[in-house]
Amino acid sequence: xxxxxxxxxxxxxxxxxxxxxxxxxxxxxxxxxxxxxxxxxxxxxxxxxxxxxxxxxxxxxxxxxxxxxxxxxxxxxxxxxxxxxxxxxxxxxxxxxxxxxxxxxxxxxxxxxxxxxxxxxxxxxxxxxxxxxxxxxxxxxxxxxxxxxxxxxxxxxxxxxxxxxxxxxxxxxxxxxxxxxxxxxxxxxx
Length: 190
Fold this sequence. Notes:
Blueprint: E1 3-15, E2 18-26, E3 38-39, E4 42-44, H1 51-63, E5 69-85, E6 99-112, E7 124-130, H2 132-138, H3 142-155, H4 158-170
Parallel strand pairs: 1-6
Antiparallel strand pairs: 1-2, 1-4, 2-3, 2-7, 5-6
Helix pairs in contact: 2-3
C-alpha cells in the first residue's frame, strides 16, 4: 500500500483576548465551487528530510512564519487516507472511484509565535487566528481537530487539563469563565 509522509506546525499566539491558533484555507475550490478546506501549515517530506525540518520549511513556504519557538515534547502523529490519481484517473475527469487510497502520516508539532502576520503561498487564499473552539470547528479534518485538542491540553496547566478531560467526557455545558466557590459555612460563636 502506498504511503505519504507529511509534517506541519500548529501555531498559537497569546493575545489580550486569549490564545489564538492559526488555520489556513486551501485555494482549491471543491466540486461545489466553494472554498471548503481548512488546515494547519503542513506538507510532504522531501527526500532525506526529517519531520521537524519539513515542518519548519512548510511554515515558511505556506505561512511565511519564520519567528517562532517550537514547544518541546509535543508531537502528534495524525493518520488518515487521501485519494490520489491512479493510472486511469486522467481519463476519468478525477472521479474518486478511479483514484486509489493512500495512507498519509502527518507529524504535527506545536509552536508559539509573537507575530500575527502571515504571508500565504499560492496554495492558500486566506487565514484566521482563532480561539481554540472556533479553530476546532473551522478545521476540515476530524484528525486535525483531535491534534488541536491534544495541543490545547498540552499547553494548559496540568490541573486544568484534568478538568478539561472530565468536561469533554461528560459533555457538560461550557465551563464558566470564572470559578464560583461554594459558600463557606461559618460557625457563629455561641
